[in-house]
Amino acid sequence: STDPVAALFKAISLANVDRISEALQVLSTFSLQHDASVAAIKASIHIHNNCQVVDREAVSNLEDTLRDKLRNTRTAKSLYLESLYLYLIGEKEEAISAAESSVKIESNSPKVSALLGWLNLDSKKVRVAARYFAQALQDKENSDAALGELHCINPLEGLARINKLVVRHPREMVPIIFKIELLLNTRQWELLADSLLRAAGIDSTNLSVLQIQALKLVIDGKYDESIGIIEKLHTEIEQQEPRAWWLFLENVSLFSRVCGGNLILYSCLERYAKSALRVCTVKGSPKVLLEIGHFYYLWGKQLFSTGENESDVREKLKLAESTLRRAANSDESTRSLVFLIMIELVNTNTIKKQVYDQLDVLSGLGVEKDNPEFLLAKILARTVTDQDSIVQLLDKAVTAQQSKSSTFKYGVSYLIALNPQFLVDIAAVYPKSKLGEKHRIRVLMLVVETIPGFVHASLELGRAHLSLGQLEEALNIFEHVASVDSSNPHGYLLQAQIYIMKGDLEKCRDLLELGLSNNLQVMEFPQYHMLQANVAKSNSDDNLVITELKQAITMNKGKNMLSQEELSEAYLDLSGAYMRTNQKKEAAEAIKEARELLSGTDDNTIVTIAQARLSLTNGDIRGALSLLSSIPKGNPSYIQAQKEKAEIFLKELQDGLGYTQCYQALVEADPSTDNLTMLADAYMNIQEPELAIQTYEKAMGLNANDRLSCKLARIFVKCHQYSKAIKAYKNSGEEGSLELAELLLKLSQPEKSEQALANLPLSKKAIILAKIYEKLNDFPRAIAMLREATSLQNAADPEWSAKLYRQMAVYCTSQRDYKEAIDLYKRALKYTPNDSSLQIALVKLYMQVDDWTNCDETCKAILAKEPENEPALLTTADLALRRVDLPAAMSSFSSILDRRPDYWVALARLIEVCRRCDRLDSALPYLQLAKEKSGGHTSPGLSYCKGLYEWYKGDTQAAVASFNSARTDSEWGPQAVYNMIEMALGQSGNSNGAATAHRLLAELKPRGEDEENTIGLVEGFIRLATGDKSEIERAIIDFTSLANSEFLRVGASLGLAMGYAEQNQIARAKAVLKRIAKLPWSLEEADYLERCWLMLAEIYINNGVQQAAQAQELLQRVITHNRSCIKAFTLLAALATKENNYQKAGEHYRQAWHLSGESDPSIGYKLGYTQLKSKQYADAIATCQRVLQLHPDYPKIRKDILEKALPRLRT
């Protein structure tokens, strides 16, 4: 309150954020002070003059006061404060003049010297600044000068000095922030990380620390980790500096230029953009508008380049355009016009003529001298076609961009000025020639060195090296990409071997492929081929197993030789592969070769085991048993031999006694805990739990341990002896506690289940604890706990981390937070990138949110690795159906069923597609093939598919019988019941339909809110079917409530419209249907939506010919999605009849007649009538005869049509 220096800083800061009255209030206190008055009055005048509405009277009074003050003799302090004020408002020359005047009065003022240092430093006069700072540092306590001097010396020397300040002031933020900036300048990443951690410990909300923390993560390519910090930084700016638009803007500028086009980060930065626009001052507005427009341009361009939704691209580019147009009316008009042209050039396939006109205008203004974006625009617009000229212009743009950053040290300002994203855009446009690739490499090298985590730039750099044949350079770049993406590119054989030992063969294969892509010498190791053989064995590719093992044995020489154990394993597996492919001669030869190589070693008995397996393959069971029995006790292969003997007794001879005797022999030879455990397991395999329990108890008598207690508890569970199981689990350590919790949860005791986990660390119990909270219906708590567990889990166990994220994703999906669920599945895939079940779950979510592009791409990625992956194949087919590419959908579903005829989901989908294609009979061969595959056993899935086909074929009675067979099944039953209800409600003239439907509905037991709402929806349709006024009123109330549900909106709206129609409120029905008619078609709501279209079309037709066009469009829409819709064709025919176009009406009625199986007499009547009207007498007579043949009690057609057509045919 008494320091004029602090007052000036505060007043100018307040003025910068438009808090004018507060700024003037601060200054008013010092206007009367002798030394501070001139600076305070001048600052007040400056603030008044920069207001939108200037208080002229106040300014005049201040100017009068100022003139009076200036008549007095000036002091050194007065001139220093005036200089400081001028420095703060950016008037550097005048500030220097005032400071130098102060020095003339008082030559050794440290404050003035320090201020002169900063003034000269800002003017890039580093040596002069250094001299002034040195003078100021005669006062060793002058920290202002000490910090200023750091900017004038070498950063490494600066670090040595700043470290002293940090030690001297360990809890002060200013020194450590300076240190962080110097470490960033010198790119000392590890030290920077340590200093950031220390700074965050002092003040976790410091804006500079948060910004550089986020920047460091983005530079490393750790975008997911950076998002939380960037969001926190925004929150802190909002709290600490809510009016500081330039802080919001700086972060938009920084992160949008270095984030590598990460769309999630763009979404995060939009908050900054909106905040900057919201709080910017009039003075700052042009700069803000230009930068925010540029940000939305970058976002839209990235969305376009990654093939995102076209509407999203349009939205972002439209925002960019509108923002830049506002900026075009300011001092930033030239740059904004260039960016407006760049927006037009996002899609270079369609360049408008006005772009060329604008480029010509700007070129005439000499824009290209200092505007690299303009140079790029010229290339993108193809105004320059000569390759050498293109290279020259792009080089010029790069040079111009680099010159912008040359005045800064590496850091925030440097990265904003350099704009790595723009350099990548420039690099992309270099010609695909040798010269172009060389220049592309130069630019991309600059980007990758600046931002190592910019993966897209690294990939493009690798490709450029590759195109020039620089394989090693490309290899190094791709290794760098792998390291940024958290997959280890080194030590492939050792990692693969570990994954083989863990049983994760898919990861082993991926690592070996990755190793090959980086270093072909991996293939020279026999261990590599051994590992490849293991992978091939898991894929049942025995031919590849043989090839790889033969290669491993051939290459078994030199320094990379296999051990004897590995060699014996190779021969054992090779002979086994030969046997599985029925190459018995080759198997015998391999065994012979192994016997010669391993003769005289302990591993020779492996050959005996292989020989026994061959004997078994030849049907010589006794010979196999004899060979295995020849392996003596004490031999390393004795246990393996006894196990193989036991398997022969159990599987070949079905001899349970002989099976257990093999394990008893092991116990007799060595009554160890392990052998007793194997004997107990054997008893369980032959359903002898009591003997198993006795044996486990003996084993525990020798060595009671957690593992045995667990096994014993599991047997008690199998025997339904839950109290004993619980007691055993309580003495079985961590694993037992986890299984105990699961048991108690199954027994519906969630509270006790949670107690069982009390002493376990969160990292161990997270999944089960989440299931407990799920049982308690506390999903937010479950998600929060799992999220906490992920923060504790290290990367050493990627599978567990993936499991945690998967479980969170499942819960988010159940809570309909699809965006978060998608992000969580993606995070899980970072830990287990080849887990196809995770990818399939992600695909289902993409389908849920109509993200067809990502859905398709993910399916292709799965099928590239697993061409037979059924869920992926089914999803690909589903995608075609959802895109209404019915032929492609039919082909895809048929392909799946050719491989697996009893894949009921695919068969049901095929029947649906065939119906929609009006090719229902095409599904019949697949239905028959499925029946043959089932071998006379009618599964619920087959019954459902059969019922579906019969229903669509019009055989209602048979369909009801088939659906009835499936209705008790947990998977197919509910939908079968819904279909039966639909059939009951759809039978005209059946007064008991509603009662039947209601009885069927009562069978359904809802599992969750969604199913309850679905049942409520169907119940509403049943109420409508009763025709009772009160029931219709009740149905309308229920439908109104359900219409707010995202997933039932279409069905509820249909019911609402039907209810209004029943009450003869056609206008209200029409209003409801018009809202729904605009919704896109989706597979889940297809039937309801098509019925809405039909009902609205019928209303339009009834309204007269003036709305015929709307009706026609709706009906065509129905037919596009369902070519077997009888009502669509009958309504089209009715429309044509109203227009007296009987020829066209007849065509539509003929199609409807065909689709009904020529069984509906009313359609036959209408067809005959239109044929009579269009003078097609022979056709009319044939139609009448067909109707009368099927429905002799339908005399109306004889009198109205047949008797009129016959005489006209004769004449």
From TrEMBL:
<feature type="domain" description="Tetratricopeptide repeat protein 21A/21B fourth ARM">
    <location>
        <begin position="708"/>
        <end position="761"/>
    </location>
</feature>
<feature type="domain" description="Tetratricopeptide repeat protein 21A/21B second ARM">
    <location>
        <begin position="230"/>
        <end position="503"/>
    </location>
</feature>
<feature type="repeat" description="TPR">
    <location>
        <begin position="455"/>
        <end position="488"/>
    </location>
</feature>
<feature type="domain" description="Tetratricopeptide repeat protein 21A/21B N-terminal ARM repeat">
    <location>
        <begin position="2"/>
        <end position="191"/>
    </location>
</feature>
<feature type="repeat" description="TPR">
    <location>
        <begin position="1161"/>
        <end position="1194"/>
    </location>
</feature>
<dbReference type="InterPro" id="IPR040364">
    <property type="entry name" value="TTC21A/TTC21B"/>
</dbReference>
<dbReference type="Pfam" id="PF25062">
    <property type="entry name" value="ARM_TT21_N"/>
</dbReference>
<dbReference type="Pfam" id="PF25060">
    <property type="entry name" value="ARM_TT21_2nd"/>
</dbReference>
<protein>
    <submittedName>
        <fullName>Putative o-linked n-acetylglucosamine transferase ogt</fullName>
    </submittedName>
</protein>
<dbReference type="InterPro" id="IPR056832">
    <property type="entry name" value="ARM_TT21_2nd"/>
</dbReference>
<dbReference type="InterPro" id="IPR019734">
    <property type="entry name" value="TPR_rpt"/>
</dbReference>
<dbReference type="Pfam" id="PF13181">
    <property type="entry name" value="TPR_8"/>
</dbReference>
<dbReference type="Pfam" id="PF07719">
    <property type="entry name" value="TPR_2"/>
</dbReference>
<dbReference type="GO" id="GO:0061512">
    <property type="term" value="P:protein localization to cilium"/>
</dbReference>
<dbReference type="InterPro" id="IPR056836">
    <property type="entry name" value="ARM_TT21_4th"/>
</dbReference>
<feature type="domain" description="Tetratricopeptide repeat protein 21A/21B fifth ARM repeats">
    <location>
        <begin position="871"/>
        <end position="985"/>
    </location>
</feature>
<comment type="similarity">
    <text>Belongs to the TTC21 family.</text>
</comment>
<feature type="repeat" description="TPR">
    <location>
        <begin position="673"/>
        <end position="706"/>
    </location>
</feature>
<keyword id="KW-0808">Transferase</keyword>
<dbReference type="Pfam" id="PF25064">
    <property type="entry name" value="ARM_TT21_5th"/>
</dbReference>
<dbReference type="InterPro" id="IPR011990">
    <property type="entry name" value="TPR-like_helical_dom_sf"/>
</dbReference>
<dbReference type="Pfam" id="PF25063">
    <property type="entry name" value="ARM_TT21_C"/>
</dbReference>
<keyword id="KW-0677">Repeat</keyword>
<dbReference type="GO" id="GO:0030991">
    <property type="term" value="C:intraciliary transport particle A"/>
</dbReference>
<keyword id="KW-0802">TPR repeat</keyword>
<dbReference type="InterPro" id="IPR056834">
    <property type="entry name" value="ARM_TT21_C"/>
</dbReference>
<dbReference type="InterPro" id="IPR013105">
    <property type="entry name" value="TPR_2"/>
</dbReference>
<dbReference type="GO" id="GO:0005929">
    <property type="term" value="C:cilium"/>
</dbReference>
<dbReference type="GO" id="GO:0035721">
    <property type="term" value="P:intraciliary retrograde transport"/>
</dbReference>
<dbReference type="InterPro" id="IPR056835">
    <property type="entry name" value="ARM_TT21_5th"/>
</dbReference>
<dbReference type="GO" id="GO:0016740">
    <property type="term" value="F:transferase activity"/>
</dbReference>
<feature type="repeat" description="TPR">
    <location>
        <begin position="802"/>
        <end position="835"/>
    </location>
</feature>
<dbReference type="Pfam" id="PF25058">
    <property type="entry name" value="ARM_TT21"/>
</dbReference>
<feature type="domain" description="Tetratricopeptide repeat protein 21A/21B C-terminal ARM">
    <location>
        <begin position="996"/>
        <end position="1205"/>
    </location>
</feature>
<dbReference type="InterPro" id="IPR056833">
    <property type="entry name" value="ARM_TT21_N"/>
</dbReference>
<dbReference type="Pfam" id="PF25068">
    <property type="entry name" value="ARM_TT21_4th"/>
</dbReference>
